[in-house]
Amino acid sequence: MSYFFKILRLNVDVRFFYFMFFILNNAFASGYEANSSDRVSKLTHLVKEDCAACHGGLLKGGLGPALEKESLVMKSDDYLVKIILNGSPGTPMPPWSQFLTEDDAKWIVKWLRHH
Amino acid sequence: MAKAPLSVIVLCILSVITGCASPNIRGTGDLGVIIERSSGSVQIVDGTDCVSLGRVTGLGDLSHASLVFSKDQRFVFVFGRDGGITKIDLLLGKVVKRVIQATNSIGGAISADGKLIAVQNYEPGGVKIFDSKSLNLISQIVAPIGATGKPSRVVGLADLPDNKFAYSLFDSNEIDIVDVKKPSDPSVTRFKNIGKSPYDALASPDGRYYIAGLYGEDGLAIVDNWNPESGARRILSGYGRGEKNLPVYKMPHLRGWSLSGELAFFPSIGHHEVIMADAHNWNQITSIKVAGQPVFVMADPSGRRVWVNFAYPDNDKVQVIDVPTRSIIATLSPGKAILHMEFTSKGDAVWLSSRDDNKVVVIDTSSLKVINELSAESPSGIFFSWRSSRIGM
After folding, report:
1. Cβ–Cβ of B61/A58 closer than 8 Å?
2. Backbone angles phi, psi at A108, to 5 degrees
3. What pTM, to 2 d.p., does this model score?
4. Which ipTM value was assigned to this complex?
5. What is the reported pLDDT for A1?
6. Which of A59, A70, A74, B9 is most buried as measured by Cβ atoms within 10 A of its Cβ?
7. CA atoms of B78 and B66, how far apart (whole Å)
8. Hey, is the C-beta of B64 within 8 angstroms of any chain A C-beta?
9. How far is CA B280 from the centre of its chain?
């Protein structure tokens, strides 16, 4: 490691800065991860059980639209993530941002498209 | 000793064999059915001894399901999300007939004379009428075109006296009443512009009133079937009183248990409140703050208490309102994701489904203590046979 820094001709202060940046970045990134098995289990359960209240148990729609893969083809990931987090005013779709992070919403969209 | 004639021996053998095939001799008055939503099955239960009598499988998509009892309480008609209607013999514990009549369905009802089954469909939007013995399709009513450009989704179907059914149209803001005295030629009376987005509805226990809850505004719409010429009118308009609307993570469900004697109890939409109203003039008496978005607001058979369960994220709680004091007397946590509650016929106990604990909990309504639990796979609706004698259930 010391050889590496020597090659870069970095002084001690900067090396310390980069070291701390590396540590802190990883610490905040893993408060939880959207793809940890526990979180995956909770998100899957949420979609299959609670989203199903309006979108149907097989996601074929109800008071809410169908969420089958074919129904989502023309809708972008960004659009769907935004709807999940912020809801759709004027419709029964509520905002889920108090329960889900953006990473969660992205995972749900991915699951809906590929499960 | 004389030998028994061959004919007698044959008769004895035959009577044993036929005896084995007969249903158990038991009453049907305390039978119940529990929907198991993830396994496409139901359990038949004895509501007195709190035991399961067996499971019936092969009912398709029951992620949302409801059922009605035949007039004689021998059969149930289960309406599944996938458009299936399954007729089950409760004493034999088996499916006797199953049809698929739509691609997305939400429930059904049985006529006053018990001879007709009506089903309400999201897709294709409309109502279909079937013979309750054979499940043969007799007629169908296509819903008016709604805001989606397709026939409107039908919600809130309930039977009324005189062989009529009432239902609401989510996408076209309408209440329709269909007369099926000539089932092959149903006659529809339409009440238009009744309010924004009716999401469910109830018939009063005497069948006089049909009341639709509105999603798109604070209020409900009511039709007086004794005076239909007066049309539909709004009641409890603006019950939110300008309070900020909270998000709704599951729609409330309305049935006749909202009404008890002179009082009515309705779930508020977007407010964590139960609205208490006068069931004669429909004026609001008060609102009672509760733990979350109410889903089921059910007066017990005595009318003394009202039980409330809630939408996500508060669906682990159940609250009990004391009607005389208009106060919450208990907040219970019987299990995770309490989806449905059902009283026994005279209200000595209430059965609750805990979807995420895979159990049904039986609570004594006097002591509010859990007195029994039954295993069930992801249970939702619980239905007891007393419903066969109730209008609108």
Report:
1. yes
2. -65, -45
3. 0.89
4. 0.85
5. 47
6. A59
7. 6
8. yes
9. 24
Residues of B within 8 A of A60 (CB-CB) are 81, 103-104
pLDDT given at position B290? 98
With an 8 Å Cβ cutoff, are A92 and B312 in contact?
no
Please state, in angstroms and rounded to a whole number, the distance separating the CA atoms of residues B387 and B292.
28
Mean pLDDT throughout B356-377?
98
Residues of A numbered 33-62 whose beta carbons fall under 8 angstroms of chain B's beta carbons: which are they?
A: 45, 49-50, 52-54, 56-58, 60-62
Kindly state the percentage of chain B with pLDDT values over 70.
Answer: 94
pLDDT of residue A29: 40
Pairing of strands B154-160, B116-123: unpaired
pLDDT at B327: 97
Please list, in sequence order, all residues whose beta carbon lies within 8 angstroms of the beta carbon of residue B278, skipping any fewer than 6 positions away: B262, B263, B264, B285
Q: What is the 3-state secondary structure (H, E, C) of A52-92?
A: HHHHCCCCCCCCCCCCCHHHHCCCCHHHHHHHHHHCCCCCC
Helix (H) or strand (E) holding A24: helix A12-29
d(CA B205, CA A103): 49
- How far apart CA B390 and CA B393 sit, in angstroms, is 6
**Chain-chain contact of B250 with A53 (C-beta, under 8 angstroms):** yes
Question: Is omega for the bond preceding B313 within 30 degrees of 0, making it cis?
Answer: yes
Chain B residues near residue A56 by CB distance under 8 angstroms: 63-64, 81, 104
> Letter for the amino acid at B195?
G
Whose structure tokens read 């019950």?
B239
CB contact under 8 A, B81 and A57: yes
Residue A6: pLDDT over 60: no
How far the first Cα of chain A sits from its last, in Å, is 43
pLDDT, average across residues B15-34: 76
A91 and B CB contact within 8 Å: no
Positive or negative, the CA dihedral A11, A12, A13, A14 is positive
Rounded CA separation B176/B156 (Å) = 10
Task: Test B64 with A60 for CB contact under 8 angstroms.
Answer: no
Looking at residue B238, what is its pLDDT? 86
